[in-house]
Amino acid sequence: MSEIKTIGVLTSGGDAPGMNAAIRAVVRTGLFHNLEVKGIMRGYEGLIGNEIIPMNRKSVANIIQRGGTILKTTRSEAFRTIEGRKTAFENLQKNKIDALVVIGGEGTFTGANVFLQEHGIPVLGLPGTIDNDLIGTDFTIGYDTAINNVINAVDRIRDTAESHDRVFIIEVMGRDSGLIALRSGIGVGAEAILIPESETEIEVLFRRLEEGRRDKSSRIIMVAEGRHAGGFEVAEKLKERFPKFDIRLSILGHIQRGGSPTCMDRVLASRLGVAAVEGLISGHKGEMVGVVSSNIHFTPFQNAIKHINEINPNLLRIVDILSL
Ligand code: F6P
Q1: Distance in Å, CA 100 to ligand 1 centroid
Q2: Each residue of 251-266: pLDDT tens digit?
């Protein structure tokens, strides 16, 4: 029999579409198993500030389709300190919270891991980030919506690029990961995709543009923000090398993170939310709950946050083939 009576849930780090679906799943699964569920506002910052609210069936009604997070989010500096984490633990005790579900990315899990080691509170993490940069899940909550946001934006850009015979450099988010650029780049039929994990350097891009078909009227080049040279530098270098090309730069920015989550993200978030609560009840702690090859998978926090610079080489290869 599990000792857990009350679960706390929070979102932390950059918001991601689908976080609300995950909160809903955590709350409803908790209630299903006769637990109390409390929402912690503004991530670890709200835990330290004791901004804790009761959650019921109705508090998560009609949120599955909404982007952002109803619990709000922060990147807490105070939680990086021993004193901050001590105050956070005292507030958990005051609110009789026995276990935590934290929804976020690398920074969220790093904090959760230290918190568990210092105070022994059972905590499980759900991967909520558009970057898809965690080990132990095929996809993170928010990634599918973000790449769909990117392709919708770039399809529009393609219309104008095609009309003017222009080369467009598109810079997308991803922090240190090129996975948003890679999948959305394939999805829009990009000429080239520059990501931190591969060696497609500017010289390679020059060669491709020189050797490639001259009769193309528009070209889309995707650049991941985490590269040493971002979209601006790539655009400048291209202008210098190809003065006859009509080149424009578009940095998509936070538009990628907003909007209603896709069905894939809603279902992923729902599955993971259920699995997190049931995982806590069955004694799991200190792990991220993910989906690997369609199955629920638990990965210790310290392994989930190891950034591995490996990318499926087949995805890169098809970019080369299809940009013919
Ligand atoms: O981690 C999600 C993310 O959107 C990254 O892709 C990006 O580098 C970062 O957050 C942007 O952070 P902020 O919203 O604080 O500008």
Answers
A1: 24
A2: 999 999 999 999 999 9
